[in-house]
Amino acid sequence: MEKQLEALAALLARQSEQSQALLARQSEQSQAREERLTQLLERWWGAVRGLAGNRVLGLSVGVDLLVGVWCGRPSSWGACPFTPHPPQADQYYTGISSTTAIIVGVGVGGVWVVRCRPRARTLAFLLAVVVGVMAAAHAPLAALTCGGGGAAGGPLMDGSTLALHRACSEGCYCDAGGAYQPVCVRDGPLMLPYFSPCHAGCPPPPLGQPLGNCTCGSRAAKVTPGPCHPCPTHLLHTCLSCLAASLVPVALLINLLLALRAVSKEDKTVALGLKLSLWSLGRLVGPLLVGALVGESCLVRGAACRGAWRAWVGGKGRLDGVLFV
């Protein structure tokens, strides 16, 4: 019995020693990790302090922030009034056109860098030219309009909203926050725009049949989907938007090469991290900033996907000024 107790005591002692040794190793490993992390943070902070005085890198990071804000803004808000397609397809239309322009910009910029291998001064000059051309392309967008006669309602006295409802469609109980589906009622020489078929007093037609029997108009009136007047500036708006979108990747490529040539080899990773962080920050700030500004210029807002809202109709000259100035 005594021998068994002694063996058990020896076993417990060995297990205790092993546990203490394991805890000691874990403590040493934890301290080593903390030391490595501290050294890494000190090196990173030292690199950041060293790069803080680099003016070229500072300007490059600022450009990344501004381009990130531009890329993060909702692009369809500015193009919706200019697309000749139904509002349901405006994002598809603007997405295809802008994506194609970006692909062209990436291809042209890559071929130019590989073929020409420009110097730092050339890169700085070209970056200024590209940014200037982008600003020149955006300036006319703030002044472009589709002309008068296309408003889907009459403005109220304070100009803060539109009176979408008419006496001829009061019994339809139309939802003011619904989707923007403009229709045009052509009644003889008159052409009256409405926010949706419901606001024109049109009952849902049979499948494949045109709209008709609308209360806002005579029996001979013709109702067609879309605005009453086509937008004459649609082509110019699309060309300027595609030009600006195609220059964005070119500006980012030139900006990246310029920043990498302005820092030492050991600081390149930190510089790339700073640029990516500021660009990502701009992508986050863009929708918030533009959304707040658009909210002040919106005359008719409605529900969009995932519980969000969008400005279906903006004040004349106000919404485009917010988006492009």
Automatic annotation (TrEMBL):
Biological processes per GO annotation: sodium-independent organic anion transport
UniProt GO MF annotations: sodium-independent organic anion transmembrane transporter activity
Residue intervals of the Kazal-like domain: 162-215
Membrane topology annotation: Multi-pass membrane protein
GO CC aspect terms: basolateral plasma membrane
Keyword field: Cell membrane, Membrane, Transmembrane, Transmembrane helix
Classification via Pfam families: OATP
Main subcellular localisation: membrane
Name used for this protein in its record: Kazal-like domain-containing protein
Spans through the membrane: 92-114, 126-152, 235-258
Location within or outside the cell: Cell membrane
